[in-house]
Design brief:
The chain is mainly alpha-helical. The protein folds into two domains: 88 residues, Arc Repressor Mutant, subunit A (Orthogonal Bundle); 96 residues, no CATH class. It is built from eleven helices and two strands. The protein has a two-stranded antiparallel ribbon. Helix 1 crosses helix 3. The longest helix is centred in the N-terminal third of the chain and has 16 residues. The radius of gyration is 18 Å and the shape is elongated. The protein starts with 27 loop residues before the first helix and ends with a helix. 34% of the residues are buried. The structure holds zinc ion. InterPro entries: DUF7474. Pfam families: DUF7474.
């Protein structure tokens, strides 16, 4: 599984940050250092946030806080019952993120798409899996399976000859790292009316 250390604020993976990003201009090795400090602290066991801070060698700065938040948000970490943080295994992470639990993507994931909003729905699914850190091959596999399992493909309304071809036509969404929320919201509105 790929893990690219996105900017913890704007999620950019290169030096072009969003205009209002807090970490624009931060040298990339510092970004990576913040992530690895957190990951190394958690590698030898579950820890509270306070213990993670204590375990890092250098000073704990806003970049470290942001990296920790980003890891939690993208479900790389999970919270134990006692409120400590634990690193998910790659397998567990993949299982966890393959089923989106938050709306509006959950509806798209569970019900599948309907003619009239396929473009939005497939866009949103690809963008979602990119956001949570699946590789392109994993994203493609997940979205193709979703097209079959939800009955989306049999509902028709596609110009492409196969689910694989359809997903491949959305490769640019993955490569550009587009957001999923707006497209998922549009798709959910139509799915809710149709199913
Ligand atoms: Zn940024």
């Amino acid at each position: 599984m790929r893990f690219r250390y996105p900017c913890p604020d704007c999620r950019s993976t290169n030096s072009l940050h969003d205009p209002d990003c807090r970490f624009d201009g931060t040298p990339w090795p510092e970004v990576e250092r913040a992530y690895t400090d957190v990951l190394v602290a958690l590698a030898d066991g579950t820890k509270s946030e306070g213990r993670i801070r204590e375990a890092t060698d250098g000073p704990w700065d806003p970049l470290h806080s942001a990296a920790l938040s980003r890891l939690r948000h993208e479900q790389r970490l999970k919270e134990t019952r006692g409120g400590a943080l634990e690193l998910r295994s790659a397998e567990e992470f993949k299982e966890q993120v393959s089923e989106p639990t938050q709306e509006p993507i959950r509806t798209v994931y569970e019900k599948g798409s309907v003619p009239g909003t396929h473009d939005n729905a497939v866009f949103a699914m690809v963008a979602y899996y990119e956001m949570v850190g699946l590789s392109w091959a994993e994203t493609r596999e997940q979205v193709v399976a979703w097209l079959h399992e939800t009955g989306t493909w049999t509902r028709g309304g596609f110009e492409e000859a196969s689910p694989e071809q359809l997903v491949d036509s959305k490769r640019h969404v993955y490569d550009q790292g587009y957001g999923w929320k707006e497209k998922a919201r549009a798709a959910k509105a139509i799915i809710d009316r149709s199913l």
